[in-house]
Specification:
Protein name: Transcriptional regulator, contains XRE-family HTH domain
Keywords: DNA-binding
Structural class: mainly alpha
GO cellular component, one term: cytosol
GO molecular function: DNA binding; DNA-binding transcription factor activity
Length: 395
Amino acid sequence: MTGDSVPIGRRVAYLRARRKLSQQSFADRLGKSKSWVDKVERGVRSLERVSTIREIAAVLRVDTAALLGRDAQSAELAERTEGISRIRAALSTYGMAFGQPVACRDASPDQLSRAVGHAWTTYQHARYPQLIERLPTLLTDVQRLQARNPNADRTAVVQAYRVTAALLVKLDEVSLAWLTADRAMSAATGDRVLLACAAVQLGQVLRASARAKTMLLAAAYRVAPADLDDGTPQELSLCGSLLMQAALTAARAGDDRAAGDLLDEATEMAARVGDGQDHHQTAFGPTAVDLARVAAAVELDEGTGAVAQHERTIVRDGWRWLPLEHRAAHLINAARAYLQIGDVTEAARTLMQADNIAPSEIRHRPTARNVVVEVAQHPNAPTAITDLATSLGLV
């Protein structure tokens, strides 16, 4: 049942049955009545609200394209492209700096701080479409604050640019992410803690650059305590996160020794911070460092070691305490590791797990979609992953 001519109600009924959900249980999960579901499936009631369609897709664990047909794939791509264009436009608006009047009231510092906090929460829950929608307004408010009061608390400004850069890296918008991370660095000038925060995202953007490691280490050691035992969890989290970024940069360059040494250094700091922390939105701790070891091993094409480290790490309590975004991103790396050792079944299972906990990581991140294609095109690919790839329009 894949033709575009199939009514949406029949698609809902088919996908519901495939998920082995009764009409009543499906209705309960949606917060609707069984009668409402029955009318939708028989075509008596139309589905016109995009939000409702997205809710149905989430319950059925499918892409909205599986409900709307292939046209929805291009529509979602167009929506994402439009959202990125609005973010670019917001970053390119300099009118406030030249004293041009604005059409609406500026957000107060407290409102801006709350909006930034909400943006980070949205990102860490991997709700990328919602974040794309909200960022243009947040960025406009940030620039108004900078123009109105250059000496105001810069934390919200730096954090707004950081979360924007983090999202843009996910979406493979490297040039725009670089611009945004650079804005964060500029706004943080003179404050070693804020500079370290901004450098975390700049390191993500520049991971393939040979110069990135030097920059990351400079930022790490500038914020590092003189004695680890005297360091605060906040200092250690920032320093350790920067060392992890530097290690991944070294791994991408093929320098396994440097990557290992830097991760060992980060491990010492992580032991003092512990798991279940999220200082400066880093989620730094022993589990995060072990996940970085997996990512480094994958970059070095050491699939066997990466798989072993992955399987040891995900059974620990610290794994469950990580943000959904962090876990899903790691599962993409783990799938790559399974591919490196030729275990297509486990690669597919890991991708389906990532899609289950954070669908947007699979559906909106180009790197993840590429891994899905690689697994789905394998002759021994399980049906579940080929169905997912088909629903996403990838095969």
